[in-house]
Specification:
The chain is of the alpha/beta class and 615 residues long. It folds into 2 domains: 324 residues, Up-down Bundle (ABC transporter transmembrane region fold), CATH 1.20.1560.10; 234 residues, Rossmann fold (3-Layer(aba) Sandwich), CATH 3.40.50. The chain is built from 23 helices and 10 strands. The strands form 2 sheets. It has a 6-stranded mixed β-sheet with strand order 6-7-8-3-9-10, with helices on both faces. A 4-stranded antiparallel β-sheet has the order 2-1-4-5, covered by helices on one side. Helix 17 packs across helix 19. The radius of gyration is 35 Å and the shape is elongated. The chain binds adenosine-5'-triphosphate.
């Protein structure tokens, strides 16, 4: 079983209980979380902390000044000759404290907001940076996707966690201040306080576990829900949804999943609110018991009226703050559990490790690429996509790959460009394993345009520049690439030329035909000065004449380069020096067009088949 599967088994399942210990263990993620917050902005983090410490002293100060005011008022009401100066000074102090406290809360919530936004951006960037380091096959794993999804959710959810943890620290200090005040008058009140809040906390904590487990178990369904929502309401899918009349099918599926989400959550929410009410009652009983004690002591003359107001106020405030802390503890640990998902995602390491001392890429390539008994299967499949494949792609050669759908042509190309490494055998470049070369250098020296290339909803220039993004400001180079791919005349006719926005997603974007998109995408191949150029059916949407011209041009432009092209059109394929025929992942024939025709084998058969279609 894979390490990932093992990791999954350890996670709380439907029947497993998330223990208190596990919750505490999740708190271990907090230091790493704070490191990330600190990296986001040291200045804002310090300012936020200082303001919160100042704010935590406010409740006790306000209550105490309030007590002094009441005592003064009582004194003055009994003895009118007493000076009132101290009373008015106290009122002025309370007024000042109230203003400062209000200003502090506003400043804190401002800093929370700013820090939260910066943190969300910082985390999103880290998630993207990490995704860029991972291997392609990791993206093809559903479990990986779930992790990525949960990590992605962290970015906004965790800004709340940040405010919660900081408020928690602030409230703990507030409680310490208030409790100290209470202890001085009557330590027993603290015991009553615990009785009033602990049961409510345990209840809250229990339900938070259940909410977390519910959300955890729903991750992959939630992904499906997002996908259906996208299919049902997106410019890219609208055409097919209409033509195939899919909307009801999609809506029914959406309703089925979302109804289940709703029912599961509703059951939990109803139980939560019933128990919450019961424990709120217990809490209120604790508070009023304490109130009665304080009142009795005041009647007996042991406490002044000011003391009564101070203690009752302190107790009430302590109860709310303490309850807040305990309840928040539960959501902080829950947040920390989600953090575990984020850090688990960051822990996923690419399997294609770079060699310690990579070899420089040969310039120029001497002998070429040799496949030695290469076998490959995708992680999510038991079937060999390629098996026992041996051949050499000679330096400077133009090789065409031919084979029926699913024969393994694209897979071969992905292996050549090291998107994957072979599972069996090896691929050599000038006699040395491809894995020994620097992967980044390899990527600059091998240019590939895939059949499912991306149609970026960006400008024409940007769409071409993705071929070599470091040259995105090199307009002459971009225009030259467009000339070479024969896209130039098309771009010239666009209202904004190279600055034309493509696609329908953004305003003023124009949509292109399939063939027009291909010409633009092809220009990416010419952005790189790569030694090996691979075109994987990037011309399938071009009409026959356009494809012929593109390849004629391609052959001319790559005269001293090595090239691999995949096409289902034999008029194009025959331009190659040699043709490799693949069938179910294995090589069946290799040779020039004429040699293969003379051989009257698989190639000749496929060629005749196509020729007959044109007759
Ligand atoms: N990402 C993937 N995960 C699992 N299996 C895959 C994946 N990509 C391709 N395959 C499988 O590998 C085999 C070879 O696919 P490949 O895309 O290389 O074929 P191809 O010759 O390029 O086909 P086509 O002419 O249709 O583009 C197929 O059986 C396909 O189902």
């Amino acid at each position: 079983m894979s390490a990932q599967m093992n990791a999954r088994r350890k996670r709380p399942g439907k029947d497993e209980e998330l223990t208190f210990k596990e919750r505490l263990a999740a708190l271990r993620n907090l230091p790493a979380f704070f490191r990330m917050v600190w990296q986001t902005s040291p200045g804002l983090t310090i300012a936020n902390t200082l303001l919160r410490v100042a704010q935590s002293a406010m409740p006790l100060s306000l209550l105490y000044v309030g007590k002094l005011i009441i005592d003064q008022v009582v004194l003055l009401s009994k003895d009118a000759s007493h000076s009132a100066t101290w009373l008015w000074e106290l009122v002025a102090i309370e007024f000042a404290l109230a203003i400062v406290s209000d200003a502090l809360s506003r400043a804190i919530s401002l800093l929370d907001g700013l820090l939260g936004d910066l943190f969300a951006n910082h985390t999103s960037i880290k998630i993207m940076e990490h995704a860029a380091r991972l291997d392609l096959d990791q993206f093809e794993d559903a479990e990986f996707y779930d992790k990525l999804e949960r990590a992605r959710q962290q970015t906004s959810g965790r800004t709340v966690l940040l405010a919660q943890v900081l408020s928690q620290v602030q409230d703990v200090i507030t409680v310490a201040f208030l409790a100290a005040g209470l202890m001085i008058f009557n330590p027993w009140l603290i015991l009553l306080l615990l009785l009033a809040v602990v049961p409510a906390f345990l209840n809250e904590s229990h339900f938070n576990d259940l909410y977390y487990k519910l959300a955890w178990g729903q991750t992959s369904d939630r992904r499906e829900l997002d996908y259906i929502r996208y299919l049902g309401a997106s410019d890219e899918t609208a055409k097919e949804v209409k033509v195939f009349d899919l909307s009801n099918f999609l809506i029914d599926r959406f309703r089925a999943i979302s109804d289940k989400f709703y029912t599961d959550k509703k059951t939990l929410q109803v139980r939560d609110s019933i128990w919450g009410t019961v424990f709120a009652f217990v809490g209120a009983a604790g508070y009023y018991a304490a109130y009665v004690i304080i009142i009795l002591q005041t009647i007996r003359g042991r406490l002044s009226i000011g003391d009564l107001a101070f203690l009752a106020g302190s107790f009430r405030q302590l109860r709310t703050t303490f309850q807040g802390i305990l309840i928040r503890f539960s959501s902080v640990t829950q947040g920390a559990l989600y953090l575990r998902d984020l850090f688990e995602y960051f822990e996923i390491q690419p399997k294609m490790v770079a060699v310690a001392r990579p070899r420089p890429f040969p310039r120029p390539i001497q002998t070429g690429f040799t496949f030695e008994d290469v076998g490959f299967k995708y992680v999510n499949s038991d079937k060999w996509a390629i098996r026992h494949l041996s051949f050499t792609l000679h330096a400077g050669e133009k090789l065409a790959l031919v084979g029926e759908n699913g024969a393994g042509k694209t897979t071969l190309v992905k292996l050549l460009s090291r998107l994957y490494d072979p599972v069996e055998g090896r691929i050599l470049l000038d006699g040395v394993d491809l894995r020994e070369y620097d992967i980044n250098e390899l990527r600059t020296q091998v240019g590939v345009i895939f059949q499912d290339y991306q149609r970026y909803q960006m400008t024409v220039s940007q769409n071409i520049a993705v071929g070599k993004i470091t040259e995105s400001h090199n307009q002459p180079m971009i225009e030259e690439a467009a000339r070479q791919s024969l896209a130039y005349p098309l771009i010239e006719k666009m209202p904004h030329g190279f600055d034309q926005m493509l696609g329908r997603r953004f305003s003023q974007g124009v949509e292109l035909s399939g063939g027009e998109w291909q010409k633009i995408a092809l220009a990416r191949a010419y952005m790189k000065d790569a030694q090996l150029l691979i075109l994987d059916e990037p011309t399938s949407a071009l009409d026959a004449r356009a494809e012929y011209n593109v390849f004629l041009h391609f052959a001319e432009l790559t005269r001293d380069k090595t090239a691999v092209l995949i096409s289902h059109r034999f008029s194009t394929v025959r331009m190659a020096n040699r043709i490799l025929v693949l069938e179910r992942g294995s090589l069946v024939e290799i040779g020039s067009h004429q040699e293969l025709l003379d051989k009257k084998g698989r190639y000749a058969e496929l060629f005749e088949l196509q020729a007959a279609g044109y007759k």
